[in-house]
Amino acid sequence: MSIQQLIRTYQKRVDQQLQAKLSHSSIEPTLQEAMRYGLFNGGKRVRPVLVYLVNQLLDGRLEDADDAACAIECIHSYSLVHDDLPAMDDDDLRRGKPTCHIAFDEATAILAGDGLQSYAFELLSQSALAPQTRLDLIRTLAQAAGDRGMVAGQAFDLRHVGQSLTLEQLEAMHNRKTGALINAAIEMGYYSAPAASPDSLAALRRFGDAIGLAFQVKDDILDIEGDTETLGKPQGSDLEQNKPTYPALLGLTGAKEKLAELHQEARSIAQSFGPKGSDLALLADYIVNRDH
Amino acid sequence: MSIQQLIRTYQKRVDQQLQAKLSHSSIEPTLQEAMRYGLFNGGKRVRPVLVYLVNQLLDGRLEDADDAACAIECIHSYSLVHDDLPAMDDDDLRRGKPTCHIAFDEATAILAGDGLQSYAFELLSQSALAPQTRLDLIRTLAQAAGDRGMVAGQAFDLRHVGQSLTLEQLEAMHNRKTGALINAAIEMGYYSAPAASPDSLAALRRFGDAIGLAFQVKDDILDIEGDTETLGKPQGSDLEQNKPTYPALLGLTGAKEKLAELHQEARSIAQSFGPKGSDLALLADYIVNRDH
């Protein structure tokens, strides 16, 4: 199976899982509709795909990775819904569709995000995995999402719009804003494979650091070179908003060199897992070569 | 010890625990300041007090209840920070102090609320309790906070401002908006006492339903009869905003009768626990007789 086919298989799998799990009823159907709207927004499902890939790399059972895959996508989706709010990035469009607070209203978008976060932890607490595994998954996800992880990255980003950052600051920001959840996806894939050797975790973490950063550098490059229609957001919007980016700090050529380095690093870690690591290596290729 | 003294003891205990736990560092000190601002807002700590009271009623160890007490207060505080936002209730003051988005800014308040929610689950996942107990605590809190609990109650409330509700709808709303977390506090107290008999849980749940509703009926009455300064918010604000309340539906006398019934029901359940239930009965008295 090509990596594109494998990614599509996993994307479909997590979508089906989320559809089935989120079908419970509530006195607030509108709220749940907004949660589903935030979840099914045409996202690439990079984090769930990573959970599944690592689970398979470590000889896990795919069904043991479903709750982790769904939970991490709930957290990622909630963060996008809140990020798009007028008080935050104030975005009306995401992947070419109205953002949640435009399609519904601001209050509903805030509450839908809040509900998605709670739901992520509810899901993990109730999975069929061993109790200690469930706790490892919950701890990993909560730490990555919280005030030393993703949320800190968002706050740092918002406070520095229009300001110049050092490369160190930019990296510290992205390590939290995107890197924390990318790494959590990898760790959660590891925990979902109970027979995995603890030695593999350190290597997987380094892989996560490399592709997390590569993902962001690539995003910054796409903002300059990408096509507005393919991106689903206006090309050049980072530049226009004077956001700190890798190309702004390193130049476009420097950013591309940085991306190539990170790509190479990720590839060589993936290859250290032998033939089984080839899907991870292909995922690194996919992240670096994508056009949106 | 009088119930007032006991409540003060538990209030102080949870405050000290929260202070100690929230002292970790982050690249975003402002975000963490906002989280602490939302947490240390002069709240009555009703939910942590309930966790401790039930823990003691069931012969638990207080130290086993600390993480549950802190986690539920993090969830409650996050919900207040988000509730006060301009897109939600748009409140500038809470207990006489500027609300979080006034003291900081909207984006910081949104992120601080998000971070408090993550932190609640992080805390519970890392506590020293048995793995299954931690999972019971996480599941209970996540369900109570989520889209069939507190968040559904908030959404329902916002959608019905200025509309008349039936008594059934008003109760369904409060059961979620406030009742869900009150009941979660009681269940979490139960889970923090590992030797507790499962039989006690059903009675405790009925106690939770009664005082949860009593708490809300009392709030509605205080809005009419309370003193602006003692309340920390303008007296009569529910009436002015045409919010559905018990006095609006039942008349002030009817609301007071309802409160007396719920009080009596809570008292008799508390007494069914024998002499050890007296603190719970006194807490019911406190909720019904408070002036703010």
- Compute the gyration radius of chain A: what is it? 18 Å
Helix content of chain A: over 70%
Count of distinct structural domains of chain A: 1
CATH architectural designation of chain A: Orthogonal Bundle
Structural class of chain A: mainly alpha
Find the CATH topology of chain A.
Farnesyl Diphosphate Synthase
Subunit organisation of the chains: homodimer
CATH class of chain A equals Mainly Alpha
Which two chains form the greatest contact, residue counts included? A-B, 55 and 55 residues
The SSE order of chain A reads HHHHEEHHHHHHHHHH
The total strand number of chain A stands at 2
Helix count of chain A, per DSSP? Answer: 14
How is the biggest beta sheet of chain A arranged? 2 strands, antiparallel
> Rough shape of chain A?
globular
Question: Quick check: average pLDDT of chain A?
Answer: 92
Structure description:
The structure is a homodimer of 292-residue chains. With 292 residues, chain A is an all-alpha fold. The first copy, chain A, has one domain: Farnesyl Diphosphate Synthase, CATH 1.10.600.10. Helices cover 72% and strands 1% of the residues of chain A. The first copy, chain A, has 14 helices and 2 strands, in the order ααααββαααααααααα. In chain A, strands 1-2 form a two-stranded antiparallel ribbon. In chain A, strand 1 and strand 2 form a beta hairpin. In chain A, helix 4 packs antiparallel against helix 9 and helix 9 packs across helix 10. The longest helix of chain A has 27 residues. Chains A and B meet through helix 2, helix 4, helix 6, helix 7 and helix 8 of A and helix 2, helix 4, helix 6, helix 7 and helix 8 of B.
